[in-house]
Amino acid sequence: MQSNSSQLRVLLVGAQGGIGGALLTQLRQRNDISHITATARDPAGSSLTTRTLTWLPLDFRRPEDLDGLTAHLEKADAPLDAVICTTGYLHGEYGGPEKSLGQLTPETLAHTYAVNAAAPLQVLAACEPYLKRADAPRVLVLSAQVGSIGDNQLGGWYSYRMAKAALNMGLKTAAIEAARWRNRAAIVAVHPGTTVSPLSRPFITRRRAPVSSAAETASRLLELWARLTPADSGSFLTSDGETLPW
Ligand SMILES: NC(=O)c1ccc[n+]([C@@H]2O[C@H](COP(=O)([O-])OP(=O)(O)OC[C@H]3O[C@@H](n4cnc5c(N)ncnc54)[C@H](OP(=O)(O)O)[C@@H]3O)[C@@H](O)[C@H]2O)c1
User: Can you name the CATH fold of 8-238?
Assistant: First the structure.
């Protein structure tokens, strides 16, 4: 079964986050999307599930939630045209960004890695059979420029940098695999640009460089998403589509 491009089916992971929530608002305003599956750790909107929007609980600390996503995709039994993954962990109950080696803890490293690096690839693996059935599936996963090894000049933020670098490697590898699918797939890692959100808020108060609202970032990301082609697959991009160094 091939999908009709005016009737796209989209999976949005992290639809209650700062950037994820803004993406959901804008995706719902488009008329080329027939169905959105939106995930959140504790979906406040679950009672608002409609014919065109399904909410699923997805907390990466609960393996059964990933089983629930798999079961949902199996039940839908339809091509999946897009996966947009906006989840990430920088600070919280498992610790925050380290300034020095002495602050590294196994707990922060493991959790930051699980959420930022492992989970998006696990989601992608669950989606693979359905992405393969779409004509030109597009996968956009939010990474971070601080995950660039080549661009690292300031140091610090060990766990987050390491996890996003690992995510980038996973996505590049998945893009190589997807190039062998019989469709026109594109898989990219994207730095959204500094954006006001719960993740960034503690770190942007004294920042002079421009900071976007979540709505502005979501618009840029959807413009980028709309023009992704297989030629972009396996790249690490800014939300404006500029290539970033690995
Ligand atoms: N904001 C920036 O300036 C900036 C800069 C560079 C990169 N990024 C990246 O952009 C992405 C979006 O960030 P944001 O700014 O929108 O941050 P945010 O508002 O804090 O959103 C983080 C998202 O991650 C989800 N999440 C966290 N832990 C999770 C877990 N254990 N299981 C499942 N989901 C989990 C949250 O889910 P719930 O809402 O359900 O709790 C939320 O959807 C992240 O990948 C971040 O690393 C952001």
Answer: Rossmann fold (3.40.50)
